[in-house]
Amino acid sequence: MSEDVKLANVSMDFGKFRAVENVDITIKAGEFFSFLGPSGCGKTTILRMISGFIDPTEGDVLIGGKSMRGIRANQRPTVLIFQNLALFPLMPVWQNISFGLSVRGVDKATQRAKAEELLRLVDLHDAADKAISQLSGGQKQRVAIARALAVEPKVMLLDEPLSALDLKLRQHMRAELRAIQKRTNVTFIYITHDQGEALAMSDRVGVMSNGVLQQVGTPQDIYNHPANAFVASFVGENNVFAGKVVSAESGFGQFETEFGRFKARLGPGVNLGSTTAKLYVRPERSTLNPAQPGGNEVPVEVMSLTFEGNFINVLTRDDRGYLHMVQVQNDPGGKSVAPGSKMRMSFQPTDGVVLGEALQRKSA
Amino acid sequence: MNNRALPRLLIKVYVGVFLFYMLAPLIVMGGAALNDSRFPSVFPWVGFTSRWFVDLWNDDRMLHAARNTVLIALAVVAISIPIGTAAAILINGLQGRSRSFLYGVMVAPILTPGAVIGISTLLFWNRFDVPAGLHLSTLGQCSFISAYVMLLVLARLQTFDPALEEAALDLGATSPQVMRRIMIPHLYPAIGAGALIAFFQSVENFNITLFTKGNSDTLTVYVGSKVRSGITPTINALALILIVFTVVGAVTYEILRRRADARERALAEQKDADDSIMSVDPIMARPASATVGSS
Amino acid sequence: MREIFRRYGTTLSAFIVALPAFWLLALVVLPYMILFEYSLRPYLPFDQLGGPSDVYSLNNYWTFFTSSIHVKIFFLTVFFSSVVTAICLVLSYPLAFFIAKVAKPHNVPTLFAILLIPLWVSEILRSFAWFIVLSYHGPLNAILEGIGIFSGPVRWITGFNGVMIGLVYTYVLFMLFPIYNAIQALDSHQIEAAEDLGAPAWKIHWRIVIPHSKPGIASGCVMVFMLSAGSIIVPSLLASPGSRWFTEVVQQWMFESQDWNTGSAYAFLLLVLCTSFVTLMMRLLNVRLVDIAK
User: Which of C122, C175, C274, C294 has the most B C-beta neighbours within 10 Å, making it the best mutation to test the interface with B?
Assistant: First the structure.
């Protein structure tokens, strides 16, 4: 039975430094939730608060509706998968996995049986008696997961578990973790700085910066409808225009830039007259000649092309000197764009959004 | 090229000479144990004999002294290991100035002349009417041997990944369980080394033992007094036994170490092979073979 | 401290604090204090202890300072211990460097094993070994005579020579290991970079290796000096008429005269000497007390 996790207005101070400010969120039971953000954004702190290694300075952590105040890490229904895995080097694989059971007084035979069952679940056959030092990186990952699952936690916490693996293995493990989560239906709370991971694996994502939760939503929400400048720039690539909002009407507005007026969506909290807001367009929603009907246009000169395999990134420059990236599908039969040619970059009003700045900490 | 070769040769010669300098006197000393000459020497060589070993065996006082020395050594190990380990754990949990200060006090006995430790131990316990004797020697030796144990354990403790403690707690272990099952096992190599070092430091200790042993005999002091009074090569016999013992120990260690190295290398290759197999293997194609508990 | 109780629970933490407390108080600090206290009191027969003549005074120290013989012995001890320390340093440094940086890594444990043999054999046997080698009818004379360098046996153990040779041999390894440790921690790339930039060997050592190994040098010097100045067996075994060592005087007071009070004063002087040397080394080489490592 998995449970939900509620962070009720949680803040964490380390001396004068406020690592996490006023995070309020409920992660649903059985959900795969990721906290996404750069290093130092507070995501590790949140994980350690949920697991019980630190107590929040303000607010409360509730698991399954029950307050965790005063409850130590070894009494919480959570298990943490550490970034360096923290497998016990002096015990063989099966003892590692059944460690949680052994401290609860389960007899050796049952421990062993359970360990072998879990090894089958994570697809590591015949590894029960191996030493940890004999395992490869990917195999260690699986043992760590098996060890956590052995105590049947309500909530599984994962601290950037894939960051130490090489690319192919990482992609492989992403799928595995997702599959395991679906199979066991345990609430997974995952932290990472890799947006690709977060988007690929999660039911919902919480984007964090400087201790403040910037946006919570499904991966599609986060990518297609970023709530502010930070989220837009952290997740995916953007072309950015500075300017001023001169009119607003039912979610759309006119944005006055050096290139003329663009019609675009207005993001949450963006007001008329705002000069700090900026306009964001994704490279793959931008096109080069011919101009889109009803779209916004910018005259640009093609600078260079980067062949990325399934698409081509075209780097362009407008007459003010700003660089914009346009992503076009790789079409071997089509016309290729030559560097130096003058073209028009355009995008639909629905593909551009004016966004305000990131939410800041109120204290230093 | 020549410019590098000459210094290299010189230093290798130096190393050879140094090693010879270290070992030659021992060989001489051991050799004298087999020479049938009343005064320990290798020149002139009179003839092979084993009578000094026989004399050694018959020297009751020597055997008694040896027994005392071993008793003290065992007691010292039994006392200094817990003290040293606790001290290492304690100091590892402190920071800043209190840590530096405590560290200084702990290391002080190592830097103190044995005579001072011996005399101060004698005087201190005399206050409590504890007379000189084997137990006093034990306490005096523990004074500095605990420090060696502490240093060894502390060094090992600093390679301990704190995440292991947290992981164990996280999985539901209590603090004593964590210490017993995770931390102490990690420290075993240091504790083992500490026990060995403690034992040998105790056996060979002279200065402290001299002042604290009272009327009891210990090996080093007895040997010392014999050497100064009437020398016979029985001492050499003892020395030869110790040398052989040490050499055998060193050779065994070498052999074991080389085997362990070879195994390490084979292991590293195997692991690389494992990883490259796995990343190609499409696991998603496999059906879920088991479910865990309740969901 | 609170962190410890939080981390390990009450009972365990109590042990973690109590055991070292016993050690440091009962086996280290208090005994030294008692030593000092004893040194300030006069040597009295049993029934007069605690009586009117049992007063604190510096008389015992005065005994030392007014005895020209003892003062001379003290300074000779300091002098020759320093010489021994210097010799050990010069002998050990090249070897330490060799093992740490020049020797092939798989040979290092073997070298160590060989070097550890004399160490395990114990201090007393190391001194005894040289006693045999240097003796009048001993092997050294025999070889030298045989080769023809000397025409007759040479008396090696004259003045302080025997003591010095003995001390160097007995304690040189205590200089070698700390220096080895320190050099070993130096990134070899630094040396290679310096070579690459054209620095001659002596400069590399003077500017890079030696500064880096200062903690090891300090540690080694402190150990060798302390062991030498405080050595009892070596100076007595390899003694010659006229080579009295300070520790011998201390022994005299403690055992022959049974005067523990003056003895403790002299012992305290020895302690002060060694402490001063440690402080001197720390200042000179700019090192903290965390230099001791084995």
Answer: C122
- In angstroms, the CA A329 to CA A342 distance is 19
Distance of CA B71 to the CA centre of its chain: 17
Query: What is the predicted pLDDT for the residue at C211?
Result: 85
State how far the Cα of C223 lies from the Cα of C215, in Å rounded to an integer. Answer: 12
Cβ <8 Å between B224 and C131: no
Interface confidence (ipTM) of the complex: 0.86
**For the sheet containing A58-63, what is the strand order?**
A17-27, A5-14, A58-63, A66-67
On the question of pLDDT at B45 being above 80, the answer is no
Average pLDDT over residues B136-151: 94
B-chain residues near A118 (CB < 8 A) = 290, 292
Determine the pLDDT at residue C127.
Answer: 83
The model carries a pTM of 0.80
Q: Is the peptide bond before A290 cis (omega within 30 degrees of 0)?
A: yes
Contacts of C101 in chain B (CB under 8 A): none
State the average pLDDT for chain B: 83
Does residue B288 have a pLDDT over 70? no
Q: Are A79 and B170 in contact (CB under 8 A)?
A: yes
Q: Residues B187, B156: contact at Cβ < 8 Å?
A: yes
* Tokens linked to C137: 């009818």
* Chain B (29-48) residues lying within 8 Å, Cβ to Cβ, of chain C: 29, 32, 39-44
| C45 against A341, higher pLDDT | A341
Assign 3-class secondary structure to chain C.
Answer: CHHHHHHHCHHHHHHHHHHHHHHHHHHHHHHHHHHHHHHCCCCCCHHHCCCCCCCCCCHHHHHHHCCHHHHHHHHHHHHHHHHHHHHHHHHHHHHHHHHHHHCCHHHHHHHHHHHHHHHHCCHHHHHHHHHHHHCCCCHHHHHHHHHCCCCCCCCCCCCCHHHHHHHHHHHCHHHHHHHHHHHHCCCHHHHHHHHHCCCCHHHHHHHHHHHHCHHHHHHHHHHHHHHHHCCCHHHHHCCCCCCCCHHHHHHHHHHHCCCHHHHHHHHHHHHHHHHHHHHHHHHHHCCCHHHCCC
Q: Is B141 a residue whose pLDDT tops 60? A: yes
How many whole angstroms separate alpha carbon B214 and alpha carbon A310?
89
Query: Burial letters for A187-204: b for 16+ Cβ neighbours within 10 Å, e otherwise?
Result: bbbbbbbebebbbebbbb
Residue A354: band (very low, low, confident or very high) from pLDDT cuts 50, 70, 90: confident
DSSP B182: I
Is B174 in the C-facing interface, judged by CB distances under 8 Å? yes
Q: Is the separation of the CB atoms in C227 and B201 below 8 Å?
A: no
Q: Which pLDDT tens digit goes with each residue over A260-275? A: 888 888 888 787 877 7
CB pairs under 8 A between B and C: 262
B117 touches C: beta carbon within 8 Å: yes
Beta bridge partners of A213: A208
In sequence order, what are the residues at sequence separation of 6 or more whose Cβ sits closer than 8 angstroms to the Cβ of residue B4? none
- By DSSP bridging, strand A239-242 and strand A244-249 are unpaired
Residue type, A44: T
Confidence of residue B283 (pLDDT cuts 50, 70, 90): very low
Question: Torsion-angle region of residue A57: left (phi > 0), alpha (psi -120 to 50) or beta?
Answer: alpha
Answer for the pair A122, B285: CB distance below 8 angstroms, yes or no: no
Mean pLDDT of C210-235: 89
**At a CB cut-off of 8 Å and minimum separation 6, what does B255 contact?**
none
CA count, 13 A, side-chain hemisphere, B38: 1
DSSP-assigned beta bridge partners for residue A261: A256
Parallel/antiparallel/unpaired status of strands A78-81 and A239-242: unpaired
Q: Cα–Cα–Cα angle for C275, C276, C279, nearest 5°?
A: 90
Q: Which chains touch C (3 or more CB pairs under 8 A)?
A: B
